[in-house]
Amino acid sequence: MALERGRPSVRTTRGSYRGSARSSSHYNSSSSSSMDPEERCKRCCRTVTSFMFTQVGVGALVIGYAILGAVAFISIETNALDTLIANVTAKRQTVAVQLWNVTRHIQFNRARWDLESQLILKTYQDNVVQAIKGGYDTRSAQRWTFPGALMFCLSVFTMIGFGNIVPRSPWGKIATMCYALIGIPLYILYFLNMGEVFAKTFKWIYTHIYRCTEERERRARLAKMEIDVEALGAEAFQEQQIQVIVPTTACIYVLIGYLAGGTIMFAEWEDWGYLDSCYFSFTSILKIGFGDFFPGANVRDSNQGNQLKLVINFMYLLVGMGLLAMCYYLMKEEVVLKMREIKKSVLKRLLSCCGRIWGREDKSNFKNFHNADGTSVHSRGRKSVRRR
Fold first, then answer.
1. Which are the contacts of 325, defined by CB distance < 8 A and separation ≥ 6?
2. What's the whole-model pTM score?
């Protein structure tokens, strides 16, 4: 009895010990996770990094990088431009004072007045030329707005390079080189990821439309043949699990439609002809960027409507490059499938040709094989049959 009574007590002590061990381990793990900020920081950094390399994260990262670059270039170039404009304004005022002094002291000597005034104007002309080489432009202040800076950042990391707005200050040139070194790989990552996203989305839409069309045609054929559709059951109209390949013509139609929309938009907003608008859209999406046409050329003021147009132009070009990557992915899929079909057909023909050649060689060897006495196997076989 004592032994039986002792067993439960041991079991309870073991269970209590295990429960206490589990609770203590759970407490230690929870306390270690709550009391270890370095590990939580590492996990947070891993989560953010993995999200940034997804399709949505890469798109947001590109837009955020463009916004950050626009703010930085505005602050750099605006300060340098303000200093340059102030210098040119001061020189113009100095010229006005010098001309007044010459006119006041030399009143009746026309030849001397002409000589002195021409020297003063020549000096002012040289100063203005040097200022223009340094970046002075009356329209630069209107171009270095936030939407204009966005277009500049887009032309840098997409390698378009319109050339209508460029950095003039030394710090601006250094910042442009550093900005391009980081932005170009980021844009390539965006090009690949967004192209894949657009390709999957467009392929899903095309597959859905294709299967719906096939089902309607199948129902129409059965109706013409006077077959009861409901009697066949739902299995006859299940979607066929076949791989649907988007044809190249569909990709071309999408690009043509997108270019047509950009042509109408730029023709209305920029006062261009339809040919010039289509030419600009085509060269910009393909990243040629001659620079003879650029968005915002006819913006003379900085009101909200014109600046909003520049932002829409920025998004149009960014999405257009993503559609170009989509067409690349879909065309590549079609080309790979066709190359596989060509490979199968070529191998099939080679095998058939080799089989024919090997069959002919086997027959010729069988006919030409003779025994030591000079008689062939086939002839001896025939003689033996006849003798029997």
1. 191, 192, 194, 195, 196, 198, 199
2. 0.66
